[in-house]
Amino acid sequence: DIQMTQSPSSLSASVGDRVTITCRASESISDYLNWYQQKPGKAPKLLIYGASSLHSGVPSRFSGRGSGTDFTLTISSLQPEDFATYYCQQSNRTPLTFGGGTKVEIK
Amino acid sequence: EVQLMESGGGLIQPGGSLRLSCAVSGFTFETYAMSWVRQAPGKGLEWVSGISSSGDNTYYAASVKGRFTISRDNSKNTLILQMNSLRAEDTAVYYCAKDGYTVATKFDHWGLGTLVTVSS
What we know:
Chain A is mostly beta strands. Helix content of chain A is 0%, strand content 50%.
């Protein structure tokens, strides 16, 4: 199975900050990497697919980069509604696997 | 508007069986692969199972293979997860998710989830 490792597991940031979350795959997955946002008690929402493509309706302050084994999700200017947990997920092959999550909290 | 609605969760004893359903609307169901993803209380996301658009191909996580069966009824726009030999570690919120034209693309829509609690 492909292991997905996210870092950090949590971070504290202020509104307006630039935030970057890292995801590393245990083997190359090309650009088969998706990012999701989840708020407490809610279902996850797709943010980024194919490592860098913005899902419809997602604000442009979210961006994704990377290929192979190393990927990043960046929020260019953190907004109050962005405080949530973020997950990466590889879609290279089954079993599909998620990272452990990064909780973004208010500083 | 794309909508997915899970049902069938509840409290079940270890070793028991449960059947989850996901009713979908707002897109051409028979065109898309689908998956089940679960989340144990306070934990991260875990993919459980996926099925191709036709239903001919199914995929499972090792943790549920041989116990869970995914299926779909394209005439009724419904996704099914039959769960047998349930264990305490299967306790989770179960989400159905719309995939791409093939399994393992991206989950662009999710249901609200249904809670399964396995406990005596």
